[in-house]
Fold these 4 entries.
Entry 1:
Amino acid sequence: MANYFNTLPLREQLEQLGKCRFMDSSEFADGVDALKGKKMVVIGCGAQGLNQGLNLRDSGLDVSYALRPEAIAQKRQSWKNATENGFVVGTYEDLIPTADVVLNLTPDKQHTPVVKAVMPLMKEGACLSYSHGFNIVEEGMQIREDLTVIMVAPKCPGSEVRAEYVRGFGVPTLIAVHEDNDPKGEGLALAKAYAVGTGGHKAGVLMSSFIAEVKSDLMGEQTILCGMLQTGSILCFDKMVEEGIDAGYASKLIQYGWETVTEALKYGGVTNMLDRLSNPAKIKAFDLSEELKVIMRPLYNKHQDDIINGTFSRVMMEDWANDDKNLLGWRAETAETNFEKTPAGDVEISEQEFFDNGILMVAMVKAGVELAFETMTAAGIIAESAYYESLHETPLIANTIARKKLYEMNATISDTAEYGCYLYNHACLPLLGDFMKDIKTDVIGKGLDLEDTGVDNARLIEVNEALRSHPVEAIGGILRGHMADMKKIV
Ligand SMILES: NC(=O)C1=CN([C@@H]2O[C@H](COP(=O)(O)OP(=O)(O)OC[C@H]3O[C@@H](n4cnc5c(N)ncnc54)[C@H](OP(=O)(O)O)[C@@H]3O)[C@@H](O)[C@H]2O)C=CC1
Ligand SMILES: CC(=O)[C@](C)(O)C(=O)O
Ligand SMILES: [Mg+2]
Ligand SMILES: [Mg+2]
């Protein structure tokens, strides 16, 4: 097999990268009807598998789990996830032959062997679904021509796919039908019903392509969503402790700070997040983010370029072949960081204090969101997709850090995302070395010690105009307008 994207002429590459249409809510009027009475068999009861299955069942659909023999024999976590939630669990031989839709929710590294094992058992004309385009695009997996192949990709960690559904909302979702595998022309109906079943239609669904999804998803996770939050956590914690701030306070400010400041982002974009700061702090955060964007832009460009030309996938697959040596080594290193090893202190921090004492964190989120958005759209990703993949998903990732720090984030996201997060972190930590030397506690840990809270009006007007005029704010205003069911997280 070869990288499918690289076999295409530029014209088709651009066409596929540009597939992105925001779907009107009326297109989901049939709800889950196309899947009613159909057997949905999920392979892999992990982050996406369990949580998507819970949502689909609550939406009235018939969901069961086909697990690999050792998971059943050893009663592994995936077996516990499925059985403790009352799902039918069986082997591939038990469940696949009668399945109408097989949901491949195993790790990307396992997709080729899993699909090869399952395809011969699938009945004529069944449907195979993915939640990420890697296997089809980066590996060029060929699927039996009588099978329908679709993608329903939540732009969100598995745990929050469930959490937002339970709140009565959902998470932005990209759907696609693999053009080489839609023999009965039913792929779109199945994908739409699946997106309604997970609750994605309440947040927003894009008619996308396997290529557009994979080239944006890899970028989001390797930069703002996971990489920046990891790098920012480590740098901000070490700086605060170095400057004499109580380690427990520093740990708590970061662990819960990302969630607090990015909740403002989720509701009102970068503008609202910075509006939560005092005027002097807003200008300080703006200036820091501009500095960060200049320093980090080459790294964002490199990651996007490596994703587009297949270098990232090739390098990651070399690690797959090397028993995940880098992934496991970087995971172990992360666990040894001071931030991870310092529990959040038993100290009260008010919602506003997270902003006032987290100016640098706000600056890092602004810089990462804008850079990721700018770089994706420059590479041919359409604005709606870039918005979901940069701004909207950041608070959803921050929710995982609030639960159990970087450990929880890296355990909940896919192994592919975790690998990309560490790749970014390894490059960005040294890149920000000089920048961090000039950082003091007024922007992280203590807040500005303001004698004079006055600001220069011309500068403030300039900053406010710059905030509001960034393209991520324009598309964000439109897309958030369709999120009528958005709920507070607490
Ligand atoms: N994690 C996330 O939030 C997101 C993930 N995705 C995509 O969703 C898909 C699933 O990812 P994710 O939920 O993170 O996966 P997880 O790593 O959470 O879960 C994978 C599951 O698959 C099982 N599994 C592992 N290897 C095999 C194998 N060889 N054969 C059969 N089952 C196996 C594991 O169970 P056991 O080891 O017990 O057998 C585990 O339950 C991926 O394509 C990913 O890119 C998309 C969006 C977000
Ligand atoms: C959670 C999500 O959307 C990621 C980061 O793309 C992933 O886990 O692969
Ligand atoms: Mg993603
Ligand atoms: Mg991903």
Entry 2:
Amino acid sequence: MGIDGDAPVPPDRRFGEEGGRLSYGGYLCLPALLSQQQPQSESPDELLFITIHQVYELWFKLLLHELENAREAMFADELWRARHLFQRVHAVERVLIEQVEVLETMTPQDFLEFRSKLAPASGFQSVQFRELEFLSGLKDERYLGSFRHAGDTELARLRRRLDEPTLWDAYLAALSRRDLPVSDDEIMGTLLAVARDRGSHDDLWQLAEDLLTHDETAAQWRMRHVQMVERQIGTKSGTGGSTGAPYLRGRTRLHYFPLLWELRAWL
Ligand code: HEM
Ligand SMILES: N[C@@H](CC(=O)c1ccccc1NC=O)C(=O)O
């Protein structure tokens, strides 16, 4: 009998053990992964704080990968593939928002036990977060200044993102493939034409909706983050040197694809 109570599995159906070289922990590099949580204090909640951030960074890595592939699919005129990838991006982004709740189980008093150890570190210095913004079209070179302490490879990654095409550039390429004009003067007319003739352009319309959802969920995360910040530190300034919540509130009004929002007014 197997450990699960079933009859033993015949040898020809024992799947995945052919080479016998991989183990669960080896495949997932768990010894390396699980040795990377190093609290700076004795405070019991610091492990939660580190874990949450590391999980975010892992999701950011996946999002960058999927968004790069979605961009490539749009350039290759494989809109179905881009749409498929955006569904995954949206699902991950919803998890990012839900996850804030886990960190909110920490009380502000418990956070203050180790907060002073964190400065001048802050989310400002998340390279992958800024890469996501740049790739999505929000290219603000001024943020390179917050990475003075980052390594050369990280700075080079950010510079490369500033030079690379954005998701919007890739969408414009998809429109051009259909012989739709995309110059600054003509783009709103094209977006309206797509919206009004879904019989001919439904895939382009749905893809624009996917971009908009990506934009909307990013904004929802920013709002959720600032709510958490107000709950944790109120009106205190940030460890990264900003005004804290007021700075972050300002960032909630940003859009990756402003024309897709403006389009609503013209429909
Ligand atoms: C106790 C929880 C948290 C507090 C009090 C907090 C506070 C802040 C503050 C005050 C800032 C502004 C920069 C500064 O001056 O420090 C900031 C920025 C940021 N935080 Fe957090 N944060 C928290 C959790 C998180 C988590 C879990 C993430 C996930 C990765 C995160 C990601 C970021 C990012 C990416 C920025 C830069 C945002 C931008 O420039 O638009 N934060 N945070
Ligand atoms: N900026 C936060 C501290 C903080 O949350 C943080 C500190 C180090 C690394 C990541 C952080 N997360 C988001 O800003 C604060 O001012 O309390």
Entry 3:
Amino acid sequence: MGNVILDVTDVNKHFGGLQALTDINLRVEEGTVHAIIGPNGAGKSTFLNVIVGRLTPSRGRVLLGDQVLTGKQPHEINQLGVARVFQTPEIFPDLSLLQNVMIPAFAKRDGQYECGIFKSLFGERKIREEAEHILEDVGLIADRDKIAGSMSRGDKRRLELAMCLIQNPKLFLLDEPTAGMSRHDTNRTIELLQRIKQRGMTKIIIEHDMHVVFSLADRISVLAQGAIIAEGTPEEVRNNPKVKEAYLGGESL
Ligand SMILES: Nc1ncnc2c1ncn2[C@@H]1O[C@H](COP(=O)(O)OP(=O)(O)OP(=O)(O)O)[C@@H](O)[C@H]1O
């Protein structure tokens, strides 16, 4: 294995009596796309929430490079280079698309969202140019002055991708990036993610759509009832009988 960027050791999470994650061990190699799949309620979102600091594990440790993430606040983890797109896009609905993409760049420069935009305008032009470049990349440049809240759901999700990309994260977490999208928008998003894959950004992607998973993933981990039941290349996972069993009692992927 090359450089490990994310190293998860023995992570457990319970909610009261419910064991949502059991002894999760996962290593993600720098520059790869690692998919996490599994039936509804398997623990996928819980796992992402542990990585980004929204949930504290009951036991275990998460490292980004040599930095310990466990116990840090979400904004601290974000500052260390972890960005995430959510199932429901988290955007600033009253601002333009361009402003939406510029804000995380100011926040990264100034250390926090709250005061970033009001701080010195030094570097603003550079940030604007970068934001425009990224809007072009995600196919939204023609709409840069539109109000974000007025865009379609698919466009909002692409906007949120752009807001993460401008941070140039070390690790990019995508929670069902194509959920609710038309086939056309899904394919555009796959193309976009393939393009950004070439830049070498490490990604973890949670996805139910196997077309998306098999188009993008270098490796796949399969979660079922809070435990990893299989891990390997897409071909290995596709042919694993335990995985077929976890999905609807043997139906093939
Ligand atoms: N905050 C919480 N409090 C209590 N139980 C929770 C909480 N969050 C998740 N759970 C439970 O933990 C289990 C794992 O949920 P999680 O949302 O991580 O699964 P998932 O694999 O992401 O599912 P889906 O594919 O449906 O999004 C479920 O049984 C869920 O009900």
Entry 4:
Amino acid sequence: MPTKVVPTVAQSGPRKVKRHRAKKQNPEPTSPLGVLLNHEIPQICKEHNLTLEQVSNPLNKVLNDSELRKKYNRVVESVEILKYSSNGEGLALLPHPEIPGGKQIAVVPFGMPGDVVTLRVFMTKHTHVDTDLLSIDKSSDLRKQDLIRCRYFGACSGCQYQPIEYEQQLEFKRNTIVNAYKYFAPRLGVLGKLPEVGKTVASPLKYGYRTKLTPHYQLSRHEDAKTRPNFGFGSKGRPSWREVPLREYPGEVMDIEDCIIGTEIVRQGMKNERARLESQAAKGEIKHKGATVLLREDTRRNKDEVKGSTDEMGKLSILEQDDKFKTCVTDNNAIVSEYVNGLRFDFVANEFFQNNNSILPKVIDYVKSNLALDKSGDDYLVDAYCGSGLFSISCASSVRKSLGVEISAHSIAFAKKNVELNNIDNCEFIEGKAEKLFEKIDFPKDKTSVILDPPRKGCDEVFLKQLAEFYPKRIVYVSCNVHSQARDVEYFLTETEKGKDYTLESIIGFDFFPQTHHVEGVAVLSRKC
Ligand SMILES: C[S@@+](CC[C@H](N)C(=O)[O-])C[C@H]1O[C@@H](n2cnc3c(N)ncnc32)[C@H](O)[C@@H]1O
């Protein structure tokens, strides 16, 4: 006889219902989500006489009640897009699904201010809802659909601004900077210390400018080893407002055969690597479940030096342009070369280097002229966060001496090599955190200008305090995150002892990434006495 199993008390007791609890969102304040939660949502509430409570959602209830979730995850028609977020996504107010007369704030990727749209809410957060754009019922005056050049625009997460005239894109980017200083440097506004933000400087190339792309692939659970996985870029939700070709098993990664913001040789590299993945799949040779593939343009004067991505026949893809030879490198550790204003810069393929070569001469000219270097060449330069030496080396002929500091040992090694490659002898580089330069520096402060070009998170307070103590005559702050730049500039001018002696002379954007929401900010500070 089989043994009878008597349930224990715990087993026979009432089944515990697992309750979901929403995670508290605590984004980095200068990240796009931080800006949305701390500034853009409160701003919309203020403009529409709403309190934050009036637009908040009972997230824990929604997570634990499937009927309620159906009520929240719904299709909403006739929604007007009010403005862009700093991330290039539309922001709108929706009627609240539970509270009569109440509102919800919706984030609508690909929605443009002035559009009236139908959308689907697919995710509820405490503060707002995430949505997919289903159709545009009335187009914004700014929307020019015939400008869209990519068949994947409207689902791919890479570009936001393709249907917008280029001049208008520049104006949106200027507005992002205006808002960044309003949100992160409010005291400068009150003290009357904010100059008017200048007109964003255009990129010479509007497409075909990106010297680096990083498509990825991810084997989906539905795919057998012999099917090539999608190879491309992430999708932004599941919008259906535009017919975008999707493969049978759309995953997080969209299948994209070409990216028209890439340079010609990088686009060729993308085709080659896709074909390689196809043939590896056919042979069951895909080793990794997923990977990101580096595609980086390499430019050489000497054809014999070129190495890079090969086509299906195993032939090196090579492009001859302006007496130079371009290839697309896929090896993260390969050494690549770029030329800017005739100077050569070598660096490791997966280390930082600016991604839009066409705009660099304009940026360097602007930075150089705002360093206000003495024509006699008697000035000194500090290049903080110097990477492989782009700014130091570009300014070398106009200064007596420069000192660069950089945390990446690889980049420092290449900065030193680039000095030799360009026959320069007045640039020195040290490896370490930016503040390390103050242990070493002996430049006369009245003859020294400083370039800052930190990563997205900006500078830290320790560094900014020491910079103020060092007391250089001018500071040119280049930044890929205008929010952290605004925060740092305000801190420097108002919280450091000697920062109060400086004026914020100008703020301007450079369009390193046309068709996207990104903008590079350059702020110039000069010492009054
Ligand atoms: C935006 S890149 C600028 C590089 C260079 N100015 C250029 O244009 O090529 C920022 C650089 O800061 C470096 N970095 C990050 N944190 C740092 C720190 N705490 N101190 C010094 N360098 C840092 C990164 O390695 C990166 O090379």
